[in-house]
Design a protein that fits this description.
alpha/beta; Nucleotidyltransferase, domain 5; five-stranded mixed β-sheet; 6 helices; about 40% helix; RNaseH-like_sf
């Protein structure tokens, strides 16, 4: 049984995890390769949210992300995958992009870091945008398997593990 996590968008990121052990299996940018869907039973997709007073320059960008997330969910559901949504605040709280990427990286084992090496955040400065989507997808998956916790006041994530028991 595998879990697929997706950060939707034009530069989407994805990651797969062993749903039993919680180990990262694969990750990448763009649409997940079709062979990745073999064995995926649960998918967790970030649900785009327009936060009042937020930093979004154009709320229509969030609407486009929501359409993309819905399209991805529809494709996965057609393959019999159980789809769950998680908002950014539910899985990462209020961490900014750079802090979030670095914290996600810190949660990976040495083997997982080797698997995700091309997405490693730089030591200093801002994390390149080309890397953030894949690192976010890894973070969404880590949250879903219980390896990336956020303060309770922000929610408990997608809750797929609770419903699977």
């Amino acid at each position: 049984m595998a879990l697929l996590s997706i950060d939707p968008g034009n530069n989407a990121g994805w990651a797969t995890f062993d749903a039993t052990t919680g180990d990262l299996q694969a990750c990448g940018k763009g649409a997940p390769p079709p062979d990745i869907l073999d064995g995926v039973t649960v998918a967790v997709i970030e649900h785009p949210v327009i936060y009042p007073g937020g930093k979004t320059k154009n709320p229509n960008d969030i609407v486009k992300l929501a359409v993309t997330a819905g399209t991805q969910a529809g494709i996965l559901m057609a393959h019999g995958v159980d789809v769950r949504y998680v908002t950014p605040r539910e899985w990462k709280g209020t961490l900014d992009k750079d802090a979030c990427c670095r914290r996600v990286w810190s949660r990976l084992t040495a083997e997982e870091r080797a698997l995700a090496a091309r997405w490693e955040p730089e030591e200093r400065g801002e994390v390149k945008d080309s890397k953030t989507h894949t690192l976010d997808a890894i973070g969404i998956g880590l949250n879903a398997v219980g390896r990336f916790k956020v303060p309770e006041r922000f929610g408990s994530g997608c809750g797929w593990r609770r419903r699977m028991r």
